[in-house]
UniProtKB/TrEMBL annotation:
<feature type="region of interest" description="Disordered">
    <location>
        <begin position="689"/>
        <end position="708"/>
    </location>
</feature>
<feature type="domain" description="Cytochrome c">
    <location>
        <begin position="593"/>
        <end position="686"/>
    </location>
</feature>
<keyword id="KW-0349">Heme</keyword>
<protein>
    <submittedName>
        <fullName>C-type cytochrome</fullName>
    </submittedName>
</protein>
<keyword id="KW-0408">Iron</keyword>
<feature type="domain" description="Cytochrome c">
    <location>
        <begin position="194"/>
        <end position="303"/>
    </location>
</feature>
<dbReference type="Pfam" id="PF00034">
    <property type="entry name" value="Cytochrom_C"/>
</dbReference>
<dbReference type="Pfam" id="PF21342">
    <property type="entry name" value="SoxA-TsdA_cyt-c"/>
</dbReference>
<dbReference type="InterPro" id="IPR009056">
    <property type="entry name" value="Cyt_c-like_dom"/>
</dbReference>
<dbReference type="InterPro" id="IPR036909">
    <property type="entry name" value="Cyt_c-like_dom_sf"/>
</dbReference>
<keyword id="KW-0479">Metal-binding</keyword>
<feature type="domain" description="Cytochrome c">
    <location>
        <begin position="48"/>
        <end position="151"/>
    </location>
</feature>
<feature type="domain" description="Cytochrome c">
    <location>
        <begin position="339"/>
        <end position="428"/>
    </location>
</feature>
<dbReference type="InterPro" id="IPR051459">
    <property type="entry name" value="Cytochrome_c-type_DH"/>
</dbReference>
């Protein structure tokens, strides 16, 4: 009978572990989201205790799970998904009818340390009471005072769990507690100093870091709750939970770097992802500098175990960082040799390189490097697959109020995702990494319920499909010339732009002036030229205007490759067809631009990639990563993007990247008015002249927003 009970308890705690690590992510509110004491009848000493308790609540990250509606903080109701149904967080406001207003301090202490509610029922360890058991009596008393006097009572009944049998039976948890629970408060280690012990207390107790980062045992219990004792080497040594690989935190960076990461969600090595986004957003960014340093000092003191890896964060390409060792085949700063010859390489080039770059270097202060990325070096690909299917968002912090995002790539097939990840791991991960199969992606997709972003009925052409064609080598050259125009054709490009600066992802993005079907419409009449022009002439128009350079010889291999690439993109398009997603769309041209507002929008949403003064963004080697938007190295006044409403239409649908969730660039988000405002601002800044401008518009009326 005991064995049956233990089996039941094992299932329940496995369920609880799964629940804890899949709590619903929510967008943070503008303030810190944690109620402030409004009680007026308290003495100064009581106010001080309440404020201490508020900080304890922050350390324990209570608000992240116990607030579903920002207008009702701590009233519970947040759905916690499990494979067997839902749990809902409880009301911990001091409402006597539906909250914890009737709890005595002793009852509160029992629920926090033992997981036993006032009425005697056992809590699922989705509430991490095994960690909270380490709280000091003083912190417990302060937290109780805060919840009773610093939080406004909210009458909101707790929602019953929606769990099927046998997972709705809580009695087995009492047996689990008897076997696994350690309910003694934290005891300082005598030969360690006060700062180290403070860090240990925060990590082991209120921070409950081990709930995700410590390996689990046969009963799905944390194998150890401390860094001491015979099992201490397992503490924070890494675990896979619900599709995320929570890697080892042992011997993590310098204490200063750890403190910066917990404060801002990023440091020179990269940014947080997965469940750590919630932790930083709701908890650690509000900790004192002393506490953050204590955590960093404690983590740094833990010796790495066998095969331990640090957290899932990448090294960045900033100058001053020692050269990284990738473990893969790519040399630091170099483009992998098979990026143009494999399906995975071309898939990466199309869907990943715009942010992570073709050499894996990433973009300083924006997108993490893949070279040296410890997630790629892990044998467990769970985090990689998870991010590809569900996307990623940096935390909202006081220092970074606008989070960068990576959209979901669930629109790609399981095989495509596997190919891209295998290429990436070969290039920048570990040489002995096992091959990811499409079936692994399929299982994760089903488990995560990952669905495609179909906000536009546009099928993005796949560059990888070029490898099936007889002229594959020529087509790949055409794609390369579009992506890396300035470097490959220095005699024809006079600024720092490439074709793909406007024709995003090598001309495959809807409303990003895609090449799909375009060659079917040439030869055609061009009002600017006042005559019928060929596709080659249209291409050379871009070289002269957008790229401020010289025409490409019509008979050159490069021109033939570009035309072949466009012809491959034509598909079955006929001249009379309307191609979904072609061009850049339109905006309301009756809108009056507000240049001052455009300047503000540029600073907030454009400067990260294009520079505070429109100068573009360079990497540590001085190479241009994202193009300048004005000045001598930008497009000239003859370019289409020099026109306010053309530029506004492009910006409306495609910029900024990585601020939204749309596939494939996280692009868009501005209103028509905002797009017009910012377009007016950057198009009318100083830029190169276009000498042949007097020959334009010979027969037709010049558009009202043309620069000449």
């Amino acid at each position: 009978m005991l064995s049956v009970a233990l089996v039941g308890a094992v299932f329940l705690i496995w369920l609880a572990v799964a629940v804890f690590n899949t709590r619903t992510s929510r967008v943070a509110v503008n303030d810190d989201g944690l109620p402030v004491s409004g009680a007026t009848e308290l003495t100064p000493q009581q106010h001080q205790l309440v404020e201490q308790g508020r900080y304890v609540a922050r350390l324990g990250d209570c608000v992240a799970c116990h607030t579903s509606e920002p207008s009702k903080p701590m009233a519970g109701g947040l759905a916690l998904e499990t494979p067997f149904g839902k749990l809902y967080s409880t009301n911990i406001t001091p409402d006597k009818a539906t909250g914890i207003g009737g709890y005595s301090l002793e009852q509160f202490d029992r629920v926090m340390r033992l997981g036993v509610a006032a009425d005697g029922h056992n809590l699922y360890p989705a509430m991490p009471y095994p960690s909270y058991a380490k709280m000091t009596p003083d912190d417990m008393k302060a937290l109780y005072a805060y919840l009773m006097h610093g939080v406004t009572p909210v009458e909101q009944a707790n929602r019953p769990s929606d769990m099927g049998f046998p997972f709705n039976q809580r009695w087995g948890l009492a047996l689990w507690n008897a076997v696994f629970l350690e309910d003694e408060p934290f005891q300082p280690v005598q030969d360690k100093n006060e700062v180290w012990n403070r860090g240990a207390y925060l990590v082991q107790g209120l921070g409950h870091c081990g709930a995700c980062h410590t390996p689990r045992g046969v009963g799905f219990q944390e194998k150890t709750m401390t860094s001491e004792g015979s099992a201490g080497h397992l503490f924070l040594a890494g675990e896979t939970v619900e599709g995320w690989r929570a890697l080892s935190l042992r011997n993590l960076w310098t204490p200063e770097e750890t403190a910066e990461m917990l404060k801002t969600g990023r440091n020179k090595h990269g940014t947080v992802s997965g469940n750590m986004v919630d932790v930083v957003q709701h908890s650690t960014q509000y900790m004192t500098d002393d506490d953050l340093m204590a955590i960093g000092i404690f983590l740094k003191s833990l010796p790495p175990g066998e095969d331990d890896l640090p957290m899932q964060l990448a090294q960045g390409p900033e100058s001053g960082i020692p050269p990284y060792r990738t473990g893969g085949m790519a040399k630091p700063g170099e483009v992998p040799g098979d990026i143009f010859t494999t399906r995975g390489g071309l898939g990466y080039l199309q869907f990943c390189a715009d942010c992570h770059r073709s050499n894996g270097d990433g973009v300083p202060n924006a997108f993490p490097s893949l070279a040296g990325n410890n997630t790629l070096q892990s044998q467990d690909p769970a985090t990689l697959i998870h991010i590809m299917l569900t996307g990623w968002q940096a935390p909202v912090t006081q220092s970074h109020a606008r989070p960068l995002t990576m959209p979901s790539f669930a629109q790609l097939s399981d095989q495509e995702i596997a190919e891209i990840l295998n290429f990436t791991r070969r290039a920048w991960g570990r040489a002995d990494a096992h091959e990811i199969r499409a079936s692994e992606v399929s299982r994760a997709r089903k488990h995560l319920d990952a669905t495609a972003d179909n906000h536009r009925p546009f099928e993005t052409p796949r560059l990888a499909e070029m490898l099936k064609e007889k002229n594959a080598e020529q087509l790949v050259l055409g794609a390369r010339l579009n992506i890396d125009t300035a470097r490959m054709l220095p005699s024809n490009v006079g600024n720092k732009l490439n074709c793909a600066s406007c024709h995003l992802n090598a001309g495959t993005v809807a409303d990003g002036s895609p090449y799909v079907g375009v060659s079917a419409f040439f030869p055609s009449y061009a009002s600017r030229a006042g005559r019928v022009i060929t596709l080659e002439e249209r291409i050379n128009g871009c070289f002269q205007r957008s790229m401020h350079g010289k025409p490409l010889p019509i008979t050159s291999d490069e021109m033939k490759a570009m035309v072949a690439y466009f012809d491959w993109m034509k598909r079955e398009t006929k001249p009379e067809d309307k191609v979904e997603g072609r061009g850049v769309g339109k905006v309301d041209q009756t809108l009056i631009p507000n240049t001052e507002n455009g300047k503000r929008i540029y600073a907030a949403q454009c400067a990260l990639c294009h520079g505070a003064n429109g100068e573009g963004v360079r990497n540590a080697k001085g190479e241009m990563v994202y193009p300048p938007l004005w000045g001598g190295e930008s497009f000239n006044i003859g370019a289409g993007m020099a026109r306010t409403y053309t530029a506004a239409a492009f910006v409306k649908r495609n910029m900024p990247i990585a601020f939204g969730t749309h596939f494939p660039l996280g692009q868009g988000g501005l209103t028509d008015q905002e797009a017009v405002d910012v377009a007016e601002y950057f198009t009318h800044m100083d830029r190169p002249d276009f000498a042949p401008k007097g020959k334009d518009w010979p027969n037709d009326k010049k558009p009202a927003d043309a620069r000449y």
